């Protein structure tokens, strides 16, 4: 039996540490990105939660801005996509970016064949697929990127969870879809929740706070604010609770622990920047035929075949 190195570094999983600090900062060529330890053990996956570092964009968009929609120079954004494609050795046309419209719609992509004919077909905030060699992407600058992988059936899903989508329960909806469409078992679903604005910085008004009051365990992610009629929202925890309430074991869920607004040296933050900024890319892809060899039995026993 081999013991994964992240297990040695983090002998206590779940519970008190809530899966935090299990992300690793990695650099490929110029690109700096975070990887979830539990996803890194799945050898059928490529995944990255990119930072803002390693690109060609300047000033407010410095430097790895992956969005054409925020006012950055088009040729700089193209250069950034080129750098990403080169670093991961994935052809540019294999990256799929959806429109992200703050809904709870999930785009299910079949293993083969065409899957969209117009840009409007891409109005979704989640993607689920078993298709190989398709890098499904989520752009963020405070919103929560939530990644799912069924390590046995080799299904992946990515979610863009801003407050509206989170209030609509998008992460729970993805879990239900994985179960209903793909037959995923809860104990096989791994979850990595990437960098997002933290409860330290995400002040919300009564409209936003009220949208979460009907959710179970909202006392765990909704807090009084310092100012009148304001609250502090922990969007990562809101999504983590949604996922745990679907009976996915807590030990299967990792969170990055990074606040995008506090760490603008590493990440773009819409709130932290005042609104003019870039978007980082988060992507995941099924590589090919290589199986995932990680089997989790319980908190302490891991078998790598
Ligand atoms: Zn913060």
Task: Describe what you observe in this structure.
With 305 residues, this protein is an alpha+beta fold. It has one domain: CNF1/YfiH-like putative cysteine hydrolases, CATH 3.60.140. Helices cover 21% and strands 26% of the residues. The protein has helices at residues 5-9, 37-40, 74-88, 163-167, 170-182, 206-212, 235-244, 270-273; strands at residues 23-28, 31-36, 45-50, 95-97, 106-109, 126-129, 135-140, 144-150, 155-161, 189-193, 203-204, 222-224, 231-233, 253-255, 280-286, 294-296, 302-304. A 6-stranded mixed sheet has the order 1-2-3-15-7-4. Strands 5-6-9-8-10-14 form a 6-stranded mixed sheet. The chain has a 3-stranded antiparallel sheet with strand order 11-13-12. Helix 5 runs parallel beside helix 7 (235-244). Zinc ion (ZN) binds next to loops.
């Amino acid at each position: 039996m081999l013991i994964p190195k992240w297990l040695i570094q983090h002998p206590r999983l779940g519970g008190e540490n809530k899966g935090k600090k299990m992300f690793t900062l990695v650099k490929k060529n110029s690109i700096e990105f975070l990887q979830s330890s539990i996803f890194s053990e799945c050898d059928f996956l490529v995944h990255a939660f990119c930072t803002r570092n390693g690109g060609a964009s300047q000033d407010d968009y410095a430097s790895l801005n992956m969005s054409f929609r925020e006012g950055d120079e088009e040729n700089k954004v193209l250069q950034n996509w080129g750098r990403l494609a080169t670093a991961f050795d994935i052809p540019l046309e294999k990256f799929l970016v959806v429109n992200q419209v703050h809904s709870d719609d999930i785009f299910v992509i079949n293993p083969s064949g065409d899957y969209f004919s117009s840009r409007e077909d891409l109005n979704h905030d989640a993607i689920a697929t078993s298709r190989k060699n398709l890098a499904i992407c989520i752009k963020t600058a405070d919103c929560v990127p939530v990644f799912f992988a069924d390590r046995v059936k080799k299904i992946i899903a990515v979610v863009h969870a801003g407050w509206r989508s989170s209030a609509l329960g998008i992460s729970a909806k993805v879990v239900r879809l994985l179960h209903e469409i793909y037959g995923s078992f809860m104990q096989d679903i791994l979850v990595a929740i990437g960098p997002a604005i933290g409860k330290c910085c995400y002040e919300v008004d009564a409209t936003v706070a009220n949208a979460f009051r009907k959710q179970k365990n909202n006392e765990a992610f909704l807090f009084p604010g310092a100012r009148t009629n304001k609250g502090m929202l922990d969007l990562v925890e809101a999504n983590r609770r949604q996922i745990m309430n679907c009976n996915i074991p807590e030990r299967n869920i990792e969170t990055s622990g990074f606040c995008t607004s506090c760490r603008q040296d590493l990440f773009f933050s819409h709130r932290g920047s005042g609104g003019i900024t870039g978007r980082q890319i988060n992507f995941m892809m099924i590589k090919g035929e290589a199986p995932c060899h990680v089997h989790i039995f319980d908190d302490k026993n891991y078998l790598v075949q």
